[in-house]
Batch of 2 targets.
Target 1
Amino acid sequence: MSERIPVIKTPKVYVGGAFIRSESGRTFPVYDSGGQFVANVPQCTRKDLRNAVEAAAKAVPGWSRRTPYNRGQIIYRLAEMLEARADEMTGVLRQFAPAWTSAAEQEVAETVDRLVHYAGWADKYEQVLGSANPVAAPFFNFTLTEPIGVVGIIASDSAPLLGLLTQAAAAIVSGNTVVALASESAPYPAITLGEMLATSDLPGGVVNILTGYRKELIPTFATHAHIRGIDAVATGDDATALRRGAADSVKRVKVRQPDINWSSEFNESVYEIRNFIDFKTVWHPIGA
Amino acid sequence: MFRRTSAWERSYITVVSKHSKVEDFGTVDRVGIEERVAKFTTRSIKKQSKLWGLNTAVSMVDLTTLEGKDTPGKVASLCQKARQPSDDSSIPPVAAICIYPSLIKEARKLLADSPIKIASVATAFPSGQSSLKVRLQEVKYAVNAGADEIDMVINRGLFLAGEYDAVQDEIAAVVEATGDATLKVILEVSELETYDNIRAASFMAMQVLRPGDFIKTSTGKASGSATLANTQVMLEAIRDFYLDTGIPIGMKPAGGIRTAKQALHYLVAVKETLGDAWLNSSRYRFGASSLLNDLLRQIHKEKSGAYQAPYYFSEAAGSY
């Protein structure tokens, strides 16, 4: 038998339920932990971000109108997909950081557990965060939650899978959709994650992942008026740029420090869901 | 300035077209035209030229509402939007509003002191399936109510049956009924099946139109609507007709043009086919309802540098 021609996967990013290259055609190389070239991944531009936001915005009405129970089922299904392909994901994580060799397996397991955690919250956070308020008049007074819309995520370098999915799961469980910028130093796990998202029953556009340079994309994340909230791992100038840019369109910015411990159980909390919901209070007359 | 077709001219045209077949107007190279229009989408238009293009596109919009549920109130807000599309006063008003005949009187009151034209569809829009007498009456009703422009539909059934003379005679009759109003002839290209038919129908209409009248792609009510390719067939027909006769006919693509980017592609096609003389609202229009909001959104983005949310521009409330 003749020698096989090598078949090497072209890394593409997952946007709007499809796998795309950057509209610019640009790529940047990623290297494994031994300094060996692995692949060229898309170097997404602000136009790619704009297109991703359009896709994400289109997905919000359908996703947020699903029953909370169904959103929980779908996020649980994503956990199932990740669990079934845990070996592949572990391999990818291991390939890019030898320091995590023992931790790679653990990171995948923790990510699956975290998805299951937030899947469970889908039909429960409303009971915790919403309320029936006592008022001194013949009215029922309820405070209810609503998703805010498109949430931008700037992912962590220290845990390129666990960090990204912790941020994403807490945002989408309430009906938001997400446009995420994957870790710049380790983008490959997010590319592999895209392939799992595609088989997870999540409607296209609910989670969109871009790869590229933070410096190029952070200003656009900050100023894009259609992005209603940002969950970013950032410090210094990046954090300032996000806060300042977000002010014009009055969007919420949650900044996390790069040394955040993603394994910590503090990342499993209903208050993470509260970051990106709006509260609506309604008065309803008490009937006879 | 309008050239009235005399009875003699009309009978002459009728005699000429008695022998005409679709092929007499020339055929269209399908592959060639689709390749050509694909190139229009690759032009790099940035910064100042983009801003110019977007503002020009705003000034060419026929802001349209053609729904069974239209009310005087909806037309009133449409007129407001037409006069002042944005709080940015450097953005021009649109060219015209396009409505059903029963609402013209309402719009006339609100646009009395403005340069914005009132266009009305008539002739049993959108199917055109009524008697000629009834269709002409509708045209006269719209003109009497104060329409500046009439958008008519041709009888596609008659065209596809090969009754070309009859189609042309009907258009000529409508031309006469419109009086001083501008006429736009809707070919409903998606129902004409082939590019050759679109070209032939364009010529049949242009032969009886006056300078400054328009041909228009679609009603927006059929399954297909304006595409760059079928618009290009019509633009080239306008060019060839102009070179033959010196009569300039306007063009109005309609239906399916929703984004500013599409609008710029269409303007590239005009610029590269007919030249600058057609890059104004007296010879080129966009029939659209949601296009205007996206144009405003992109103009605002060019000026501020930040991408804008669609709900800043009177999109349906409740959207994310």
Note: The beta strands of chain B are 61-64, 96-99, 117-121, 149-153, 182-186, 214-216, 250-252, 286-288.
Target 2
Amino acid sequence: MDRDLHREDSLALVKDLYAKGRVNRRDFLSLCAILGASAAGASLGGRKALAADEITISNFGGDAIKAYTDAWTAPFTADTGVNVAIDGAGPLPGNIKKMVDEKNVIWDVSDGDAFYGLQLGPDYLEPIDYSVVDPAGFFDWNKYPLSAGNYVYSYVLAYDKTKLPEAPTSWADLFDLKKFPGKRTLWKWFMGMPEIFMLAAGKAPEDVYPIDMKLVVEMVKSLGDNLVLWDSGASSQQLFLDGEVVMGNIWNTRCSVLERDTEGRVTWTWNQQIVSPGAWCIPKGGKKLDIAQKFIASTQDPKRQITLLDALGNGPANPAALPLLTEEQKRINPTSHLDVGVIRNEQWYAENYDNELNTWLDAIAG
Amino acid sequence: MPSPADQTASGSGAPLAHRLGRLDPYWWLVAPLLIVTIGLFLVPLFNILLLSVTDPEPGLQNYERLATASAPMRVFMTTLRICAVTTVIAIVLGYCVAYAMAHLEGLHQRLLLVAVLIPLWVSVLVRAFSWLVLLRDQGPVNDWLIGAGLIDEPLKLVRNELGVVIGMVHYLIPYAVLPIYAVMRGLDNRLLFASRSLGASPATTFFRVYLPLTLPGVFAAMVIVFVFGLGFYVTPAVLGGGRVVMLAESVSVAILQTVRWGYGAAQSVVLLVLTLILIGIMGRTVGLKRGFG
């Protein structure tokens, strides 16, 4: 009995350390294992075990855990006393559906793309409460009933200066194998890709949607062996670092890091960037809706969004942040270059992602 | 010869207690495992089957899509092709290793056994990335070949089906070696002496006596390697460079990204049925029983 009490106390301690970011996720899991509890039972899953003043948010892990802590969760805790644990497990829509179906909602707030709101729908997500969250703190393309913009990232043309005769300036150059020979890389998971085919084929930015998938298939096949796919941000970075590709369509967040790491060998152009709204959503069935809404509202703070821009290159989702940026911050911020970009159409993805992702995977396998 | 107990129990009017009495006590040893298997494996499996005909709405539309669209058909064909090629290569290489292991003595044999087993303890992810580093365009293998003047352009060794096959063969060879080795060890060597003393050449002895006697091990290894290969996820995802989509990954896309669970479940069911059919065919044609002893 005593031993059990001690174990529970140790678990509570570990949980607390984890929540405060003093213990990382891996150590947390192994400590839980040592103490004979599953992580799910200890903190990530068992809502009963949680203190009342704690919420868990999800994101895609890696450097983003520290960056979110500095920009968003630590200030929120300082303001409200509510601890925020970050679970970097990677909130793909299927993970959210699973949690809600199993009535085991671990994430009070989840990171993701704005189209999750359209894809998962009101059966799986709570509406954003725009009386708590400031409806003015968004662009008109990253505010949805079920998802609220938290940052903006974009798909941009990155290239290796040393491997090309001149700098490519538009997506048409990516498909010009004669003028720019060498391998190029595109994202395996399709989003932010089909738009560049339309632009390269000469369509005006406002005519990009609906996507002509026949044309996409035809054009992607024309790249033949010159096509390499990246399937994670890290792998896109590695391809350029190793000099395996001469150009590609990758996330802007990786470009600034690449430019720094290669001392300018790899750089990018904002021209024809595909601007994509990252967004918070609230999985249905969470017990701390009020705190979740307040947390989302707190992340709208322009200064906090700029902290995230400095750390990761994620652009502010709140237009109010734009006038506050320095020249250097503007240089790496996608939302400072909206004039030359195309906004990704979340509605199109919500309706077509399932079918066209399969079409795409089929085409790139060829 | 039937025991008296059997005779009593098989009698038509035998009381229930007697029938239960026939339940061999050894069953109790497997009971926990059976309960776990039914509870944690068969029930969820049934759920998957159910999901495939109920999500998003009742009906066979998920299967209809599998049968009519071109993308899933390609995924199936890619999966089968890669598994078949992998199996053939792994079996041939595995047979050679097993043969060497069965004929080496003492320390040498133990060393070889350890060399076969050690890769089993290395994570599949680590192995896949190691191959990627070794075989990529700017990797050491291509660098060395170019440096030696053997080739001008880097060979396309990874980020394609070849890369996937290399990675899978490497992973699966131990599973080919061990069943074959077990059969070889159990072989009565006097049969080979008999063959030689009756005038057969070493080659004839190998092909007419040794090989047929070790075939059960080969078939067992084939089933294990092939079926194992069907479910590969990490290796094709890493070494295929995004261009080789096998079934497991396709299921994961449907579950995690496009959130069409019924469609993902239907693919899993087809994979399961396909596997069972293959095992059935192999069992009938090549006498699987002998292989599994």
Note: Residues 1-54 of chain B form one domain.
